[in-house]
Amino acid sequence: MSIETITSLIRDVPDFPKPGIIFKDITPIFQDPAGLKASVDLFVDRWRDMRIDKVVGIESRGFLLGAPVAYQLGLGCPLVRKAGKLPWKTVSRSYDLEYGSATLEVHVDAVEPGDRVVILDDLLATGGTMVATGELLREIGAEVVEVACLIELGFLPGRAVLEAAGYSVYCPITF
Ligand code: AMP
Question: pTM, whole model, 2 decimals?
Fold first, then answer.
C-alpha cells in the first residue's frame, strides 16, 4: 500500500475534541489489514539497519504503532504514559498545553544506559508531547536516535521545535 493510500484512510473530524480542532482520526488505518501492515512497515523498513535498541511508544496511539514495530525488529518497547499510570519508579516531565499542562512518565529502568532508542507517536502537532518524551528518555540514559510520528501537521511548529532541540525527525505523512 502506498503512502497516498494510507493517507486516504485518515479521516478528518472537525471540532473534536473541541471547536476549531480538526482531529486526524487514524482508526480507519488500523481497521484495514493492509493499512495497518503498511503503516508498521514504514517504520520497520526505516529503522531496520540503524542499530536501534528499543522502540519507545507514547500513550496511547503510539503504543499501537510502537509495539508491532518493535516486535518486527526483534526489540523491546518501553512505554511513556500519562501521569499516575505506571506502577514502578518513574521520572516525569510536565509540559504546557493550550489550556493547562500535562505530565508524562517513564519507568526509571525502561532502558539500559546508552541504549539507542527511537520514539514513536501517531501525530506531531506543537511538539510538546515529543519534546517531553525525548527529555524523559535522555534523563534515564538513552540516546534518542530519531523521533517519529505517522502524521505531521506542517502548519504547526513541531518539527522546528524538535530539530532545534537536536532531534532527527521522521514523519512520512504531512498535512
Ligand atoms: P503535540 O504535543 O501538540 O505535538 O500533540 C501531539 C499529541 O496530541 C499526539 O499524541 C496526538 O495524538 C495528539 N494530537 C494533537 N493534535 C491532534 C490532531 N489534530 N488530531 C489527532 N491527534 C492530535
Answer: 0.97
Closest C-alpha to ligand 1, atom 13: 123
| Within-domain flag for 18 | no
Which residue from 129, 152, 175 has its CB within 8 A of the most atoms of ligand 1, so it is best to mutate? 129
Count of the separate structural domains present in the chain = 1
Q: Does 98 have pLDDT greater than 80?
A: no
Q: Which whole number is the average pLDDT over 73-94?
A: 98
CATH of residue 74's domain is 3.40.50.2020
The residues, ordered by sequence, that sit 6+ positions from 157 with a Cβ below 8 Å of its Cβ are 126, 127
> Domain limits at 103?
50-174
Cβ–Cβ under 8 Å, residues 114 and 125: no
Does 43 fall in a domain? no
Measured in Å, residue 75 CA sits from the centre of ligand 1 at: 26
For residue 128 and ligand 1, the question of a CB distance below 6 A is answered with yes
Q: Is 30 left (phi over 0), alpha (psi -120 to 50) or beta?
A: alpha
Catalytic residues: 61, 98
Ligand 1, atom nearest to 158 Cα: 4
Q: What are the pLDDT digits (tens) for 100-154? A: 899 999 999 999 999 999 999 999 999 999 999 999 999 999 999 999 999 999 9
